[in-house]
Amino acid sequence: MDAGGRVDGRRRGWVRRAVDGLVTAMVRRGTGPRGTVLLTVAGRTSGEPRTTPVTLVERDGVRWLVAPYGPVGWVRNVRAVGVVEARRGRRTERLVAEEVDAATGAPVLRQYLQEVAVVRRVFDVAPGDPVEAFVPLVPTHPVFRLRPA
Predict the structure, then answer these.
(1) Cα separation of 108 and 66, whole Å?
(2) Strands 83-88, 36-42: parallel, antiparallel or unpaired by DSSP?
């Protein structure tokens, strides 16, 4: 999604904007979809905090951040700054986000697709496809390893 609210060149519809607003309000209260947090990162040019709801996945005791809509604004900000805040309810964590290579990110991307059904429409693979099918997708759907700052 870019600054104009477009995903893959298409503008988000009113339904998607309403759902995002509802999810954001729920996560602020500490409820909402499992694994969903409010990700806050400093803008790469303005330095102003930017917040968006994202769903994290956990794999082998590590938390991962996936960009299902590609290198949108928050992804470019994370790449530039490398430090994010993840908030759910009253709990806020400061985390270092490290972008990983395609081989490392592919199994995470596959797991993400298995767990987060709402994004499946933007992928050309199915959740049950072999992990090798996800390797070429990681450059266009970046994956970040998260660790405490």
Answers:
(1) 8
(2) antiparallel
**Residues 143 and 65 sit within 8 Å (Cβ to Cβ):** yes
Sketch the domain layout of the chain as residue ranges. Answer: 6-148
Residue 35 — left, alpha, or beta (φ > 0 → left; ψ -120 to 50 → alpha)? Answer: left
Predicted local distance difference test score (pLDDT) of residue 1: 41
d(CA 21, CA 2): 17
Got the DSSP string for 55-100? EEEEETTEEEEE-TT-S-HHHHHHHHH-EEEEEETTEEEEEEEEE-
Helix, coil or strand: residue 43: coil
- CATH number for the domain formed by residue range(s) 6-148: 2.30.110.10
Q: Is 124 helix (H, G, I), strand (E, B) or coil?
A: coil
Q: Return d(Cα 77, Cα 22) in angstroms, integer.
A: 24
Backbone angles phi, psi at 53, to 5 degrees: -75, 135
Q: Rg of the chain over CA atoms, in angstroms?
A: 15
Dump pLDDT digits (tens) for 19-68: 888 999 999 999 989 999 999 999 999 999 999 999 999 999 999 999 99
Q: What secondary structure letter does DSSP report for 110?
A: H
